[in-house]
Amino acid sequence: MTLLVTGGAGFIGSNFVLDWFKASDEPIVNLDALTYAGNLANLASLQGDARHHFVKGDIGDRELVDSLLATHRPRAILHFAAESHVDRSIHGPAAFMKTNVEGTFTLLEATRAYWVAMTGEAKSVFRFHHVSTDEVYGSLKPDAPAFTEAHPYEPNSPYSASKAASDHLVRAWHHTYGLPVVTTNCSNNYGPYHFPEKLIPLMIVNALAGKPLPIYGDGQQVRDWLFVSDHCSAIRAVLAGGRLGETYNIGGWNEKTNHEIVHRVCALLDELSPSAAGPYTRLITHVTDRPGHDRRYAIDARKIERELGWRPAETFETGIRKTVHWYLDHADWVADVQSGAYRAWVDKQYG
Ligand code: NAD
Ligand code: TYD
Question: Exposed site from 118, 176, 195, 231, fewest CB < 10 Å?
Answer without folding.
Answer: 176
